[in-house]
Design goal:
Length: 406
């Protein structure tokens, strides 16, 4: 068995059960990609069993902090089952949900989402790559499902020295081929279709489920007349607003504008509006850059009762934080200017490199620059099937604010 010996004093984060072992903390030791290593302090004391990753800056990720634990198929299957079972503790009002959220579920680098009868997985570390077959079988067993599609084409793979891989891993459709990768999930009171092969991430932004519900409630309560959904992707917040307006009997006369720079996403957004029976509603879909669109709307003197800003990750790591902060501030400033008094802004950042406090400051700064005051009435975050854990604070990535313009 191979041993990874740490430098003096570098055992502290592992002692707190944080699962990452950085290259810079290692005194000596090496192994093959994904191989299990015994991690020891400089003094030779056992710290963890971990999966080695030969080229990643995160050189190993811990599987277990218990010396007697064997890292084998049975152990990994038990982690999969535990993650799946834990979802019943959360209040998930959808048949689309995250079943495994990497480090938070003790499976570093593994993401598994369920869309109805289909699982979609991303294997993003050398450790889970090595155990892929065991994990695939265990996931199907734990869920009682038969189909698993692999979407290991996220950026993180490169950093682990792994090539992108996509396609059916288990239960390919009769006749194989790439067809039939569109799924429709039921979320709260509406339906949303997505494509597991071509959609972002595993196909959909499940993490925004509860914020979409909140937006539907606000639409129902406030009977928005003019709604702007920026970075709309497949139209989740647009459908939510329509559902809320319908519940209030306030669809008539409401105008909803959805903006995204991806044409396939907009086509799916349009299809999702129709899927929920809202084809007669006054909806517009703009294939455009959000920043430029917000500027144009200001020039045209347009205003809105509700705006959603859910941009892509501007700061993947802390190194990008400064530039990203400027970009967040800019779109928030423009959006706040477009709001009527009493109007609501739902604004998000999914950047790990921007913490909740910093995001709050950025939005506040945007208000100052816009000359707009507002009540920050709620803080929003990822749905509970994307858990944060005590031991892994990096798990907090998505944060949102609900701002009501004074
Ligand atoms: N709110 C969505 C998820 C948004 S993901 C939901 O609930 O499902 C971010 C989206 O921003 C992606 O669809 C991407 O195509 C889009 N995007 C990225 N840069 C953009 C830009 N400069 N202008 C417009 N859209 C952009």
């Amino acid at each position: 068995m191979k041993i990874l010996r740490l430098k003096p004093g570098k055992e502290r984060s592992l002692a707190r059960r944080h699962p990452w072992i950085f290259e810079s903390a290692i005194a000596r030791g090496s192994a093959d990609a994904g191989e299990t290593v015994r991690v020891e302090s400089h003094e030779g004391q056992f710290l963890a069993w971990a999966a080695f990753s030969p080229i990643s800056k995160i050189r190993a990720r811990a599987w277990s902090f218990v010396e007697a634990q064997r890292i084998d198929a049975g152990f990994l299957a038990s982690l999969c089952k535990k993650a799946v079972d834990a979802r019943s503790l959360f209040d998930i009002r959808s048949d689309g949900m995250r079943l495994v959220h990497g480090e938070a579920d003790g499976l570093p680098g593994l993401i598994v989402d369920r869309y109805g009868d289909t699982l979609v997985a991303q294997f993003l570390s050398a450790g889970v790559e090595r155990w892929k077959d065991v994990l695939a079988d265990a996931l199907l067993k734990a869920t009682g499902l038969a189909r698993l599609y692999e979407r290991s084409d996220a950026n993180g793979r490169e950093r682990e020295g792994l090539k992108p891989v996509t396609g059916w891993l288990r239960g390919a459709d009769e006749g194989g081929g790439s067809g039939d990768t569109v799924r429709a999930i039921r979320e709260h009171g509406w339906q949303l279709s997505l494509d597991i092969a071509t959609g972002h991430k595993t196909g959909f932004y499940l993490d925004q489920r509860d914020s979409r519900q909140r937006f539907a409630e606000l639409a129902q309560h406030r009977k928005f007349r003019r709604v702007l959904n920026c970075f709309c992707y497949t139209g989740g917040f647009t459908v939510a607003a329509l559902a809320g307006l319908k519940a209030a009997g306030a669809l008539e006369g409401a105008e909803l504008t959805s903006v995204d720079s991806s044409l396939p996403a907009l086509e799916m957004a349009r299809a999702n509006v129709a899927l929920n029976g809202f084809e007669a509603a006054d909806t517009r879909f703009l294939d455009a850059d959000v920043n430029a669109t917000l500027r144009r709307f200001i020039e045209e003197g347009q205003t809105f009762d509700a705006i959603v800003l859910d941009p892509p990750k501007f700061a993947p790591t802390i190194a990008h934080a400064e530039r990203a902060a400027r970009a967040y501030k800019d779109i928030n400033r423009l959006a706040l200017k477009l709001l009527v008094p009493g109007g609501v802004l739902l604004t998000f950042s999914c950047s790990g490199g921007i913490g909740a406090d910093l995001f709050h400051k950025i939005v506040a700064g945007a208000g100052i620059d816009a000359g707009v005051d507002g009540y920050i009435s709620e803080r929003l975050g990822a749905a509970p099937d994307h858990p944060m854990t005590i031991e892994f604070p990096e798990g907090e990535y998505l944060k949102g604010l609900l701002v009501v313009r004074k």
